[in-house]
Write a structure and sequence with these properties.
Helix 1 links the parallel strand 1 and strand 2. It is globular and about 45 Å long. It is mainly alpha-helical and about 160 residues long. It has two domains: about 80 residues, no CATH class; about 50 residues, no CATH class. A three-stranded mixed sheet has the order 1-2-3. GO terms for molecular function: heme binding; iron ion binding; monooxygenase activity; oxidoreductase activity, acting on paired donors, with incorporation or reduction of molecular oxygen.
Length: about 160
């Protein structure tokens, strides 16, 4: 059986794992791009796949399956999402320094302020509201811009930025 990925949800609060509970732990899936791949759902199996060098994140070869059509940030040649160790490990270690528990805890008041601003803007225009477009996407974008001291597209951020 080939499942669609991501699965259709009747309600956004339904966990993705619940949607695939009836499928085998390793299932053939069809991505929105039309490509097919494999979905591994059990924790131990996922860890095995991630640790096995026979599996690769580098999906830039001709005909490689992709989740969505090429052209988004994840399909770039230099995207960390398309890197295998040791390049992925090096960049992950560098970026992890910015996401320490202490650093994020220090940013908590600013993150709350950004969240409050986004919620105020979203509720200010009345229903309907697009939670993803108006909150779930801009919040982490603005927080990362805070970490990098640049201005986010929404105008949040502590740096002088270019946006």
């Amino acid at each position: 059986m080939t499942a669609a990925y991501p699965a259709e949800k009747d309600h956004p609060a339904v966990p993705m794992g619940a949607l695939y509970a009836g499928h085998p732990p390793v299932s053939r899936i069809a991505f929105p791009s039309g490509h097919e791949g494999w979905l591994v759902t059990r924790y131990d199996d996922v860890r095995t796949v991630f640790a096995d060098p026979r599996f690769s994140r580098r999906l830039l070869y001709p005909g490689a399956p992709c989740l969505i059509e090429p052209g988004d940030f994840s399909t770039g040649e230099h995207s960390i999402l398309n890197m295998d160790p040791p390049d992925h490990t090096r960049l992950r270690r560098l970026s992890a320094q910015a996401f320490t528990v202490r650093r994020i805890a220090a940013l908590r008041p600013r993150i709350q302020e950004i969240a409050d601003d986004l919620l105020r803007a979203m509720t200010g225009h009345g229903p309907p509201a697009d939670l993803v477009e108006e909150f779930a996407f801009p919040l982490p974008t603005a927080v990362i811009c805070e970490l990098l001291a640049c201005r986010s597209p929404a105008g949040h951020g502590s740096g002088s930025g270019r946006g």
